[in-house]
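Write out the 3D structure for:
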Amino acid sequence: MAITLVNPSGLVEVGAYHQVSIASGSKLVFVAGQVAWDAEGSAIGADDLAAQVEQCYLNVGTALAAAGASFDDVAKLNVHVVDWTPDMMPQLMEGITRAATKLGVTAAPPATLLGVAALDVPEHLVEIEATAVLD
């Protein structure tokens, strides 16, 4: 596997992700920010952050699979949430947990969570992009 996830001593251990990923592969996969659309372009989870996060992760999983990758190959995630406040964390984690269960994954790559004013259309509450590395 091209990715090794690490929580170095001296950095706080966060359950939702690892602090560092070490990539040793040679093929990079960049997944565009995925939003809560199904395959037909219909919006999923209006006003439901957990449902939208779940759909975003499932879409990232689909995109990774198209490149011969999986979440085990993800070196970095960027998560953009509209009008983010810390009290939204349980909804975010619920969506991640539901998607991880459906995808059968446990990897927790380094992630950056950014609050944003808006995304591409008003109904989107979250957008998730991924970078993966393959051997």
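DSSP finds two helices and six strands in the chain.
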